[in-house]
Design a protein that fits this description.
Layout lengths: L4 E4 L3 H11 L3 E4 L19 E4 L2 H7 L6 E4 L7 H9 L3 E4 L3 H17 L2 E4 L2 H9 L8 E8 L9 H4 L4 H4 L9 H9 L1 H13 L7 E5 L5 E7 L4 E5 L5 H9 L31 H11 L3 H17 L7 H12 L8 H17 L3
Parallel strand pairs: 1-2, 2-3, 4-5, 5-6, 7-8
Antiparallel strand pairs: 7-9, 9-10
Helix pairs in contact: 2-3, 3-4, 4-9, 4-12, 8-12, 9-11, 12-13, 12-14
The structure holds magnesium ion.
C-alpha cells in the first residue's frame, strides 16, 4: 500500500511527522490560517507537496492516483471530502459516522450511481458487515449494536445530574477524542450508530437493537430469521476495522491484538437503560423519520457537547438540547445536500442559544 495523501485540520506537527515516515504525494492542512505560521521542514522530504485550505481535501480524495479513501475527519466537517471520494467511485472506509447520519439516503444513492464501495470502519458496523456475510440479506431479522455503556453505565438519571467534564472524559475501554468520548458517555454515539446502520445496511429502525456489553469484545451481531446469531469478536482496538476496510475481502495477520483463549473471558450483555440515556431514543426517532432530522440531531449534539466541555451546559442538558432543537426544526423528508447543510447551520445557531 502506498499513502498518496494525508490531511489534518490544524495539527501540522503530527502531520509533518507522518509525512516524514510515509512520504505521501500531498499533505493537506485544512486550516489555511496556519500557512504562514507553521514551520514545515520541507527539506526533510521533497516528495510531499503541502496544500493549505479545506477545499484540497476534496481534490485529493477524488484524485485519480487514489483508489481507497479512509474518511476519518470528526464531525460534519468530514462530509464534503467523503462526498467527493464517493462521487469519484473510490473504495471509502467510513470512520466518520456523521456522513451517513447527516446525509444517509443521499450518500447511499450517490454510491450506487458512482460504484463507490462503502466499507464501515466504525467497529460496530464493521462487525455487522462481517456478520452479514454469513447469510442472505432477506434472511436478516435484525442487527444488534453493542455498546460499552460508557463510564456511567448503571447510573440513574438523578446520579447523572452532577457529572463533571473530567468524569465524562474517562472512558473505561476505548481511548478516543473528547467529542466521541462525551458521545459515548451520553450514549449519543450509539444513537448516531443506529442512524448510520439504518442507512448503511438499508434496514428499518425497528430492525435495529442495542445491547450493553461492557467488555467491548463482541463488536455487534446479526440475528437471522431462524434465530441464529452471528457476532464478530476481537479485543477493543480500532486497528482491526481500519485494516479490514483496507484489505477486504482479504484478511491479513496485521498488528491488531488477538483474543487470548488460554485465560478466562467473561462476556456480559444487558439491555440499555433508556430513561437514564434518553439520547438512544433520539437515535431511533431519527432513524425512523430520516429526512433532515439526522443533520439537525448531529449538529445540535456537536454544539451541545462543546458547550458541555466549556462548562456552559450540564451533562443531562446535552440530550435535552438535542431533543428541543430536533422538535423545533422545519422537517423536510427529502432534502438536497444544500438543504442539509443549511439545516446543520440553523441547528448549530439554535443550540448555541439554547437555555436549559
Ligand atoms: Mg463505534
Amino acid at each position: 500500500m502506498q499513502l498518496v495523501a494525508i490531511t489534518a485540520n490544524s495539527r501540522w506537527r503530527e502531520l509533518e511527522a507522518q509525512t516524514r515516515e510515509f512520504e505521501p504525494r500531498w499533505a493537506v492542512v485544512s486550516d489555511e490560517s496556519l500557512r504562514n505560521t507553521a514551520q514545515i521542514a520541507t527539506s526533510v522530504n521533497s516528495r510531499t507537496e503541502w496544500l493549505w485550505g479545506a477545499e484540497h481535501i476534496e481534490s485529493v480524495a477524488s484524485h485519480d492516483e487514489v483508489d481507497t479513501v479512509i474518511a476519518a475527519i470528526v464531525g460534519a466537517a468530514g462530509l464534503r471530502g467523503t462526498w467527493a471520494a464517493i462521487e469519484s467511485g473510490k473504495r471509502v472506509g467510513i470512520a466518520n459516522k456523521e456522513t451517513l447520519v447527516v446525509a444517509g439516503p443521499l450518500v447511499m444513492d450517490l454510491a450506487a450511481r458512482s460504484g463507490a464501495e462503502l466499507l464501515p470502519v466504525d467497529s460496530e458496523h464493521c462487525a455487522v458487515f462481517q456478520a452479514l456475510q454469513a447469510g442472505r440479506r432477506q434472511d436478516v431479522k435484525r442487527i444488534v449494536l453493542t455498546a460499552s455503556g460508557g463510564p456511567f453505565r448503571g447510573r440513574t438519571t438523578a446520579q447523572l445530574a452532577d457529572v463533571t467534564v473530567a468524569q465524562a472524559l474517562d472512558h473505561p475501554t476505548w481511548n478516543m477524542g473528547p467529542k466521541i468520548t462525551v458521545d459515548s458517555a451520553t450514549m449519543m454515539n450509539k444513537a448516531l450508530e443506529i442512524i448510520e446502520a439504518r442507512w448503511l445496511f438499508g434496514v428499518e429502525a425497528d430492525q435495529i437493537g442495542v445491547v450493553i456489553h461492557p467488555q467491548s469484545i463482541i463488536h455487534s451481531f446479526v440475528e437471522f430469521v431462524d434465530g441464529s446469531v452471528i457476532a464478530q469478536l476481537s479485543p477493543p482496538d480500532m486497528k482491526l476495522p481500519i485494516q479490514y476496510a483496507l484489505t477486504y475481502p482479504e484478511r491479513v495477520d496485521g498488528i491488531s491484538p488477538k483474543m487470548d483463549w488460554s485465560t478466562a473471558v467473561s462476556l456480559e450483555l444487558e439491555p440499555p437503560d433508556l430513561d437514564a440515556f434518553p439520547a438512544l431514543e433520539l437515535g431511533f426517532q431519527v432513524a425512523r423519520s430520516g429526512g433532515t432530522s439526522g443533520a439537525v440531531l448531529n449538529a445540535a449534539n456537536e454544539v451541545a457537547v462543546e458547550r458541555f466541555l466549556s462548562g456552559q451546559l450540564r451533562f443531562l442538558d446535552i440530550p435535552r438540547a438535542c431533543r428541543a432543537i430536533l422538535n423545533q426544526h422545519e422537517f423536510d423528508p427529502s432534502p438536497s445536500l444544500d438543504d442539509l447543510l443549511r439545516q446543520d447551520q440553523w441547528a448549530r445557531e439554535e443550540t448555541l442559544r439554547w437555555k436549559s
